[in-house]
Specification:
Strand order of the largest sheet: 2-1-3-4-5
Keywords: Hydrolase, Phosphoprotein
Protein name: Sigma-B regulation protein RsbU (Phosphoserine phosphatase)
Pfam family, one: Response_reg
Number of domains: 2
Number of strands: 15
CATH class of the largest domain: Alpha Beta
Number of helices: 9
Distance between the termini: 65 Å
Radius of gyration: 29 Å
GO molecular function: phosphatase activity
InterPro entries: Bact_Sigma-Reg, CheY-like_superfamily, PPM-type-like_dom_sf, PPM-type_phosphatase-like_dom, Sig_transdc_resp-reg_receiver
CATH topology of the largest domain: Phosphatase 2c, domain 1
Order of helices and strands: EHEHEHEHEHEEEHHEEEEEEHHE
Amino acid sequence: MSPSFTILVADDNPVNLALMATTLRKEGYRIVTANSGKEARHLADTEPPDLILLDIRMPGESGFDVIKHFKSDARTAAIPVIFLTAVTDVKSKIEGFSLGAVDYITKPFHPKEVSARVSLHLKLSIATNSLINSQAEKLRQLTEAQASFLITPEQEPGARFGVHYLALHEAGGDFYDVLHISDDIYGYFIADFSGHDISTGYLTSSVKGLLKQNCTQIYTPMESMNLINGVLVEILPAEKYLTACYARLNRRKGLMDIVFSGHPPVCYVPQKGPPRLVGADGDPMGMFQSALFGLTTLTVSKGDRVYIYTDGLVESPSSKKIWHSETAKMLEACDRARPASIGRAPRVVSEHLCPNRESQEDDMVILALEI
């Protein structure tokens, strides 16, 4: 047997309450009644119904007061509310709609009208919930797919890296990858796509494929990024681009070449000596074929660390913080992370710079690598 829909009817007039309940029970609905706003709130909080019929004029808490409570509670916010009223003035109706009501039934009501309106709004509610669930499932699948191709330190232990990734939405706009190019040669890539729409999740898979194809020992890091940029210019939508940082480490030579494309500087933490920021100006990727990227080369030693990160770690649009003003904090955070393992270090830095996870305004990735 299919489950019956539950409808909560709230009216302080016992005659109206009984008539409404009888009308809807004949249609096969399960009816719960309340004769006050307070009782309606309690019943809905205890067992959320599928739809609520709510009288506006009730002693104590009015229907307007009650719907405010429903819409402020996640458990009841999505339940459709139909107001019952003898009031026909436009001002009251506008107020009700502005508070979240989906419809009005004017007293005295006709049973067939009540049944028709209840049926209509239950159908609309089912359709809306189905759409939400469908979109949530697609986004969940995209999120899982995106996570599946984000490499973990366990998959590439020779790269000696740790990473801390926090997405603002389910499918984030920040992306990283680590590539084993040759013996003792590794590539570390971080990018930040413009915008946070769902299409970004699909674009990251394209970038991963381009990295694998073009980041090889036969190309310099600058050549690799130019090749990738040429393809991105052709495939990205007009409003899309990405800032990126690509670091290629040659442990045998003790050299790290770093290409910057509109990206914040890396934080270099030598084993002996204070941390410092290393960066270079460069154009974002995917905007135009003649883009100019910045390049710098570090001489590194065993035990040194390099932190590569996206701007969400050090910027806050609402407080007008940009990474240029947060350099001292970044250096301090990376210095404090020295005792931590390379796997733990990115989280230590993140917790120092962004202790309040709830105030996060952008995706963030921080990747630490150890020479």
